[in-house]
Design the sequence.
């Protein structure tokens, strides 16, 4: 049994991961078109969530930026080399390495 002095966090709603994903998708899109200084209200509007939901998941703008960077970095490193190859003459030398085409 917990002491009455210890605050208990409310349970996370079942759709919390879905809402967080919507926020990240909206921020990624707006950052790509308006830069990282895109207004927070534009992000919440595009994601279809309120400012309280955004602040719950990302208390500071920097948290949102960091999460996007980490997600994109992880996705880049998990992608197979074939997906990363550019179809304009670049070839893969060794797994994980890209080389310039020889002229």
Sequence:
């Amino acid at each position: 049994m917990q002491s009455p002095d210890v605050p208990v966090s409310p349970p996370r709603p079942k759709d919390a991961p879905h809402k967080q994903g919507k926020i990240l998708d909206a921020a990624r899109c707006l950052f790509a078109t308006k830069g990282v200084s895109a207004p927070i209200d534009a992000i919440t509007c595009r994601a279809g969530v309120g400012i309280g939901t955004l602040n719950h998941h990302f208390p500071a703008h920097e948290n949102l930026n960091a999460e996007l960077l980490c997600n994109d970095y992880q996705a880049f490193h998990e992608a197979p080399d074939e997906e990363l190859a550019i179809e304009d003459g670049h070839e893969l030398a060794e797994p994980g390495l890209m080389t310039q085409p020889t002229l």
